[in-house]
Design goal:
By secondary structure, the chain is of the alpha+beta class. It contains four helices and six strands, in the order H-E-E-E-E-H-E-E-H-H. It is elongated, with a radius of gyration of 22 Å.
Length: about 190
């Protein structure tokens, strides 16, 4: 196999690894019944006129499986943090005691669990589409190598390797989604 094709395969693998990492981070944000500081990763607080991630204006801890505690670094941020959580559409109800913000994470209903599983499946499908697009891009780049003197046989072998890579990453996406679904459906 040509060095140019090997380089293209390596680049494609790197991009597919990034797609898997992104999917994993997106699935972490999906609530699975247990309180996790990662649940609030998508919450941005108005910090003196700038949208700032919650993790940069305070500490987020999970003292037990049903509670999140947010300790802001500035007392004046209690109100904006509370407002940001309410507006985040996470269906969480923050309780401000003047020192910290507590969030009791309610147990998931069966209907809510099914909705979350649908969301996980949609995220997984998005991951698969990304990987398939990477396959398409890699195959196009490999075909263009013909102009640089790479033989037809090497191009066919390269395309076969890209397909094997794609198949293995699609399996990884399915495994991530399956683990998350199991986590959500476990009462």
């Amino acid at each position: 196999m040509s060095e140019l094709i090997k380089k293209q395969l390596k680049d494609t693998k790197t991009h597919m690894d990034k797609a898997i990492e992104f999917l994993d981070s997106e699935l972490t944000k999906v609530r699975a019944g247990k309180a996790s500081p990662a649940m609030l990763d998508g919450v941005y607080v108005d910090y003196y006129g700038t949208a700032t991630p919650l993790s940069q204006v305070g500490t987020v801890n999970s003292p037990d499986a049903r509670t999140l505690v947010i300790q802001p670094w500035e007392k004046s941020m209690l109100g904006p943090i509370e407002k940001a959580i309410i507006e985040s559409n996470l269906s969480l109800n923050p309780q401000n005691d003047g020192q910290i913000i507590r969030i009791n994470v309610p147990p998931l209903t069966e209907e809510r669990r099914r909705d979350l599983v649908k969301r996980v499946k949609a995220e997984a499908e998005g991951g698969k589409i990304t990987i398939r697009n990477l396959r398409k891009d890699a195959n196009e780049k490999i075909k263009k190598l013909k102009t640089e003197g790479v033989s037809e046989d090497d191009i066919k072998v390269g395309e076969g390797e890209v397909q094997k890579l794609t198949d293995s990453y699609i399996i990884k996406v399915d495994q991530l989604a399956e683990v998350k679904e199991k986590d959500i459906m476990t009462v």
